[in-house]
Design a protein that fits this description.
Number of domains of chain A: 2
Radius of gyration of chain A: 23 Å
CATH superfamily of the largest domain in chain A: Tetracycline Repressor, domain 2
Number of strands of chain A: 0
Shape of chain A: flat
Number of helices of chain A: 11
CATH architecture of the largest domain in chain A: Orthogonal Bundle
Structural class of chain A: mainly alpha
CATH topology of the largest domain in chain A: Tetracycline Repressor, domain 2
Oligomer: homodimer
Order of helices and strands of chain A: HHHHHHHHHHH
Low-confidence stretches of chain A: 180-188
Strand content of chain A: under 5%
Chain lengths: ~250, ~250
DNA sequence: ACCTGAACACCGTTCAAGT
DNA sequence: ACCTGAACACCGTTCAAGT
């Protein structure tokens, strides 16, 4: 009803709703510029390389000037996580299952291209313009399925979670276990070898058997693209079954 | 073959394999004590409250003494993430689906009890004794299903990812959007209200419709226990279908 | 061999002062 | 109104010195 409710300042800026300032010098920056600079640093040096001072000097300003545009470093990270998302693929007339697969894969690829997203994502519900656009498009693709809105939202968050988890695994596997989560694994050989070294077969019978059977000795490693499709199909099968249940009960119109 | 390969020092300590020191004063601490102190702080004040100095003073030692037991703060966080896991439920003779549901729910509850786990989990493959025990028990529960080891591992990581994602969502919903990811949402009312305020129905048609339809006006909120079961069943249905496929092809023995 | 204390380099954030 | 520069409180980590 009330159309002009005051939003939190950070949201105002993320949605480009800053009220034009009356007098004084014009601002030299905006949130988008600052965010883009921070993303460049994170892509090049990882999230640890992102400091307020570093971002500031990249946009040619004193560190403290950033606080005109950003409430805190946390704010900046939130903005980065939204801005790094490209536009979602368009559903067109695609069958829901094809689109959902495409949509999930695109999210996975995004994270693989910007691994620092894994450290930034606090799993907070999306509030930025790009992330919400992604959500909108999946809802649209599920329009003809007979699922209700709540179920659609649940499907979306389940798929997003899967994309994140799988990307994290693939990322970890690609690191060769040298730089692992700070666990001090410099030069450690292979995941499977480490497990074989460390596991007591009496206390870890099933896992030991799997390790000695060679589960972790795959060609490309154990988190390759086939693994991604495996889990994805598994979930989409579940969704499909749910849709079939809904449809057979005759809930078509709404 | 070579039984005494030198593991990274942090792993040695996590697995209690520290070689007994020859001479000099006996150590006053060990990794478990330090880790427990850090966990207590994180539970009470959040992860931001965990500093090397704080942990040190809690165990009665100078900050710099911790570096006898821990290579870095990252090491300590890794140890915390493993140590916080309780023992997994025992499969007994339970049907695989019941156990998988129990196992996933227990992981979700663990994260809800220690929300800082979400910030610490870099999604690195597990290497600690507790996390690997969890993995072992799920593999054991899936023993009779005809899935191969790789598939079982994939099921495990998919379910773990779901537990994390869902816990994060439930945690976020429980926060009432006051302290959200630093997005500056102090005093912001309701998630649905915020979306209604911010979304342009032309650019976000499907999502706008859902919002105005009241998806985010659930009784308990939109990330309650029913939602958890919804997604879980969805995935277990997928697993069940896969198992059915495997079984019907006659791959029983191995 | 373990622990301390001083020291280093760095960080996010504040605030008063300039324009 | 925007930006600067000095300053503050706090970090993780090192290193030489004690016992």
């Amino acid at each position: 009803m009330a159309p002009e409710r005051p939003l939190p300042p950070m949201l105002e800026r993320m949605w480009g709703r800053e009220r034009a300032p009356r007098r004084g010098p014009r601002p030299r920056l905006d949130l988008a510029t600052i965010t883009a600079a921070a993303i460049e640093i994170a892509d090049a040096e990882g999230l640890a390389g992102v400091s307020m001072g570093g971002v500031a000097s990249r946009v040619g300003v004193a560190a403290t000037a950033l606080y005109r545009y950003v409430g805190s470093k946390e704010d900046l990270l939130t903005s980065m996580a939204d801005a790094v998302a490209l536009d979602p693929p368009e559903p067109g007339g695609m069958p829901w299952r094809d689109y959902a697969a495409l949509w999930t894969r695109a999210q996975r690829d995004l994270v693989l291209a910007h691994p620092w997203v894994l450290e930034v994502t606090k799993y907070a519900p999306p509030l930025g313009p790009r992330r919400l656009l992604w959500l909108d498009r999946l809802l649209a693709a599920l329009a003809g399925t007979g699922l209700d809105d709540g179920e659609k939202i649940n499907v979306a968050s389940t798929l997003t979670g899967y994309a994140l988890t799988d990307a994290a695994l693939a990322h970890a596997a690609g690191m060769g276990f040298e730089e692992h989560a700070g666990a001090g694994l410099e030069g450690a050989a292979d995941y499977g070898e480490l497990l074989a070294e460390v596991l007591d077969p009496e206390r870890y019978p099933a896992l030991s058997a799997a390790v000695h059977g060679g589960v972790f000795r795959g060609a490309e490693g154990w988190a390759d693209d086939a693994d991604f499709r495996f889990g994805l199909d598994l979930m989409l099968d579940g969704v499909e079954q749910l849709i079939a249940r809904r449809t057979s009960k005759g809930r078509f119109g709404g």
